[in-house]
Amino acid sequence: MPPLVPLTDHIWLYPRDPNPERIQPNVGIIVAGRQTILVDAGNSPRIARRILLALDEIHAPPVSAVIYTHHHWDHVFGGMVFDAPAVAHEICRKHLAEMAAKPWSQAYIQEEIMRAPAREQGLRGMARAVDDWRSFRIALPEITLSKTLRLYGDGLTIEIEHIGGQHAPDSLIVRVLEARVMFVADAYYPPPPHQGRPDDTLDHKMIERLAGENMELYIDGHGDPLGLEEFRRLAVE
Asked: Which of 42, 66, 152, 216 makes an SS bond possible with 78, Cβ 3.0 to 4.6 Å?
């Protein structure tokens, strides 16, 4: 279990797995008074249980909400472990409801690889992540938004905004306004490999727009936290 990475007095990061084949993204942890709010749920129940153990280590209060930044499996498959409502865009709920109706199992994943070879990398990552499909379920969002939603706790304002983008149409960003921290997840990434083209790039216009907010820290889904100038440089890479 990796140690939590402190970002501010109230914000931690359960860091991504450095092995890209494991497809385990960053999970944000916001402690707001007597509640803990998560940004994403981890890629599996196993990771979600490790997050709970890590929260115990810092004596964090109970998880009161889990924000799904978008519907991709590696950001939501841990949701079933947390006894808390999930918050997501309404498009995310639609996608997850469709996913929840599938007969998930190792055999089904192999069938999907045969049917759609371009998805093999992600599907094999999914197969490695989930070790018990019999008890697995997708926790659907209980709270949905179309544009923005604000949560409050102990002097913190957590602003959730739908931003969309080429990676996923339901992508959300999460701002902790007083701390000047923004969780951007995968919003500015290229489309997933099976949906994109070899010459796809980061969404430079989105990066420029978000950098214009002059946050102190930007946290994406699969990289290290970036300061403002580091984040701004992504727009020209």
From this structure: 42
Q: Give CATH for domain 5-178.
A: 3.60.15.30
> Are residues 23 and 125 in contact, defined by beta-carbon separation less than 8 angstroms?
yes
- What pairs with residue 35 in β-bridges? 32
Residue 180, C-beta contacts closer than 8 angstroms, at least 6 positions apart: 214, 215, 216, 217
All structural domains of the chain with their residue ranges: 5-178
Q: What are phi and psi of 124, to 5 degrees?
A: -70, -35
b/e code 11-38 from CB counts within 10 Å (16+ = b) = bbbbbbbeeeebbbbbbbbbbbeebbbb
Token readout for 219 is 């946290």
CA distance 89 to 94: 9
Give the Cα separation of 32 and 214 in Å (integer).
23
DSSP 70: S
What pLDDT, in 10s, does the model give residues 44-101?
999 999 999 999 999 999 999 999 999 999 999 999 999 999 999 999 999 999 999 9
pLDDT tens, position by position, 19-54: 988 999 999 999 999 999 999 999 999 999 999 999
Beta carbons of 202 and 189 less than 8 angstroms apart: yes
Q: Burial of 214 by CB count in 10 Å (0-12 exposed, 13-18 middle, 19+ buried)?
A: exposed
DSSP of 142-187: SEEESSEEEEEETTEEEEEEE---SS-TT-EEEEETTTTEEEEETT
Largest CA distance in the chain: 51
Q: Looking at the whole model, is its pTM more than 0.70?
A: yes
